[in-house]
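Narrative of accomplishments. A recurring question from our advisory board has been how the design workflow behaves on a single, concrete structure rather than in aggregate. To address it, we present the structure tokens for one chain from the evaluation set, followed by the sequence designed for it. No filtering or post-editing was applied between the two.
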């Protein structure tokens, strides 16, 4: 049964998880705030009540609330209690610009953060290999980034880059700043266009946890192929976007310019 707005419904806490208990509680409450289950201005239960609801210590609850307060999701006032603060307006990402998400948001005055939770050199999936035009023995660096804006997780982005073309890419700092800027700085590669497929998909349990959304929520998935100025397929990316992002793009009449003869991302996705 769905909860009324403002009523906290504590999720299950896994004591065996590598994620600290305080972080699980913080993420659970944050998810309910972002989804609207906990309404703006509603009051959270007292620390002792939260400890009982989650089956944890009061000190652990306090640690969780401190994280929520520092991220701006709650306001704690002596004599009043802990008040839920409504999420900020969704950020806007301009799809018509060849400018990275990080750079766009920084220019809008937002504080951004990138967390890399996967980084490995592997044999890429066949769809990725075909889209990038790789030989059978070529490997890729795959890395997954959680993109946060003002403490809110906005996207999970998984990218593949060919290691033969980008020697030593696994040692480049990709957490601070834009991937595209890093490719230009270290390899003199400038991405000039992208080819994308946009779909509505259901998140997995782990993706819901990372994006702080309800389990089995639907999110927007971009599957993209980036091309450099010489029309070489350079980066294959799959990005999952939360409902906290608005997208804008402009359309125009066909100009008759021929596209790359490389496999398109549509061909890769549908193959």
């Amino acid at each position: 049964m769905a909860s009324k707005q403002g009523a906290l419904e504590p999720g299950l806490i896994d004591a065996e998880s590598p994620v600290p208990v305080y972080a699980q509680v913080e993420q659970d409450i944050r998810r309910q705030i972002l989804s609207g289950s906990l309404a703006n201005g509603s009051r959270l239960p007292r620390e002792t009540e939260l400890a009982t609801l989650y089956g944890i210590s009061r000190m652990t609850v306090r640690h969780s609330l401190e994280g929520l307060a520092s991220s701006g999701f709650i306001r704690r006032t002596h004599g009043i209690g802990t008040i839920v603060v409504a999420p900020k307006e969704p950020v806007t990402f301009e799809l018509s610009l060849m400018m990275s998400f990080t750079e766009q948001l920084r220019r809008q005055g937002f504080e951004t953060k990138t967390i890399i939770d996967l980084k490995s050199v592997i044999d890429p999936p066949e769809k990725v290999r075909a889209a990038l035009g790789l030989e059978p023995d070529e490997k890729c660096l795959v890395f997954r980034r959680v993109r946060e804006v003002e403490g809110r997780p906005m996207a999970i982005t998984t990218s593949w880059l060919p290691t033969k073309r980008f020697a030593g890419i696994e040692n480049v700092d990709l957490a601070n700043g834009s991937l595209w800027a890093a490719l230009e700085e270290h390899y003199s590669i400038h991405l000039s266009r992208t080819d994308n497929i946009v779909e509505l998909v259901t998140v997995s349990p782990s993706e819901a946890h990372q994006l702080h959304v309800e389990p089995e929520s639907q999110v927007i998935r971009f599957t993209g192929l980036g091309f450099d100025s010489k029309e070489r397929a350079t980066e294959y990316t799959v990005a999952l976007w939360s409902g906290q992002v608005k997208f804008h793009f402009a359309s125009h009449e066909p100009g008759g310019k021929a596209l790359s003869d490389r496999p398109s991302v549509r061909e890769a996705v549908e193959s």
